[in-house]
Amino acid sequence: MSEQPAPAQTTVQASGSAVPGSPAAADAGPLPAELAAALKRDSAGLVAAVVQQYDTNEVLMLGWMDDEALHRTMTTGRVTFYSRSRQEYWRKGDTSGHVQWVKSVAMDCDGDALLVRVDQVGAACHTGTRTCFDGRELNVTTAQAV
């Protein structure tokens, strides 16, 4: 089910860690400082998240995350995306039952993409296919490595 962002309240301790529920939330964001600094977001503050089935390596879909969506994904065990069209958070599977259980999250070498490895329940695509790429191959000219 979609949900609107809730204002976070956090205090940053001397160690640099944040204490939920305190007023310094606006200064600290939901992510650890090192991760937040390493992420390269687009002009809308989003980063691409490639979702992959953890045991078969199937690429299931691509979604978009802001810092709050990534934080929710890393701390709840379920994948949360930010909808660019609806401008709200959505947790995969809340309406369809096709849940994505988080197994791991990695950032690429440039910090501009995430790899979210999941255990996918049911179809990953809103069209009902296992992946968002099933049956959507493009014609290409192939070459052989020398």
From TrEMBL:
<feature type="binding site">
    <location>
        <position position="109"/>
    </location>
    <ligand>
        <name>Zn(2+)</name>
    </ligand>
</feature>
<keyword id="KW-0378">Hydrolase</keyword>
<feature type="binding site">
    <location>
        <position position="108"/>
    </location>
    <ligand>
        <name>Mg(2+)</name>
    </ligand>
</feature>
<dbReference type="GO" id="GO:0008270">
    <property type="term" value="F:zinc ion binding"/>
</dbReference>
<dbReference type="InterPro" id="IPR026660">
    <property type="entry name" value="PRA-CH"/>
</dbReference>
<comment type="subunit">
    <text>Homodimer.</text>
</comment>
<keyword id="KW-0862">Zinc</keyword>
<dbReference type="GO" id="GO:0004636">
    <property type="term" value="F:phosphoribosyl-ATP diphosphatase activity"/>
</dbReference>
<dbReference type="Pfam" id="PF01502">
    <property type="entry name" value="PRA-CH"/>
</dbReference>
<dbReference type="GO" id="GO:0000105">
    <property type="term" value="P:L-histidine biosynthetic process"/>
</dbReference>
<keyword id="KW-0460">Magnesium</keyword>
<dbReference type="InterPro" id="IPR002496">
    <property type="entry name" value="PRib_AMP_CycHydrolase_dom"/>
</dbReference>
<protein>
    <recommendedName>
        <fullName>Phosphoribosyl-AMP cyclohydrolase</fullName>
        <ecNumber>3.5.4.19</ecNumber>
    </recommendedName>
</protein>
<feature type="region of interest" description="Disordered">
    <location>
        <begin position="1"/>
        <end position="27"/>
    </location>
</feature>
<feature type="binding site">
    <location>
        <position position="110"/>
    </location>
    <ligand>
        <name>Mg(2+)</name>
    </ligand>
</feature>
<feature type="binding site">
    <location>
        <position position="132"/>
    </location>
    <ligand>
        <name>Zn(2+)</name>
    </ligand>
</feature>
<keyword id="KW-0368">Histidine biosynthesis</keyword>
<feature type="compositionally biased region" description="Polar residues">
    <location>
        <begin position="1"/>
        <end position="13"/>
    </location>
</feature>
<comment type="function">
    <text>Catalyzes the hydrolysis of the adenine ring of phosphoribosyl-AMP.</text>
</comment>
<dbReference type="GO" id="GO:0004635">
    <property type="term" value="F:phosphoribosyl-AMP cyclohydrolase activity"/>
</dbReference>
<comment type="pathway">
    <text>Amino-acid biosynthesis; L-histidine biosynthesis; L-histidine from 5-phospho-alpha-D-ribose 1-diphosphate: step 2/9.</text>
</comment>
<dbReference type="InterPro" id="IPR038019">
    <property type="entry name" value="PRib_AMP_CycHydrolase_sf"/>
</dbReference>
<feature type="domain" description="Phosphoribosyl-AMP cyclohydrolase">
    <location>
        <begin position="61"/>
        <end position="133"/>
    </location>
</feature>
<dbReference type="GO" id="GO:0005737">
    <property type="term" value="C:cytoplasm"/>
</dbReference>
<comment type="similarity">
    <text>In the N-terminal section; belongs to the PRA-CH family.</text>
</comment>
<feature type="binding site">
    <location>
        <position position="125"/>
    </location>
    <ligand>
        <name>Zn(2+)</name>
    </ligand>
</feature>
<comment type="similarity">
    <text>Belongs to the PRA-CH family.</text>
</comment>
<feature type="binding site">
    <location>
        <position position="112"/>
    </location>
    <ligand>
        <name>Mg(2+)</name>
    </ligand>
</feature>
<keyword id="KW-0963">Cytoplasm</keyword>
<keyword id="KW-0028">Amino-acid biosynthesis</keyword>
<comment type="pathway">
    <text>Amino-acid biosynthesis; L-histidine biosynthesis; L-histidine from 5-phospho-alpha-D-ribose 1-diphosphate: step 3/9.</text>
</comment>
<keyword id="KW-0479">Metal-binding</keyword>
<feature type="compositionally biased region" description="Low complexity">
    <location>
        <begin position="14"/>
        <end position="27"/>
    </location>
</feature>
<dbReference type="GO" id="GO:0000287">
    <property type="term" value="F:magnesium ion binding"/>
</dbReference>
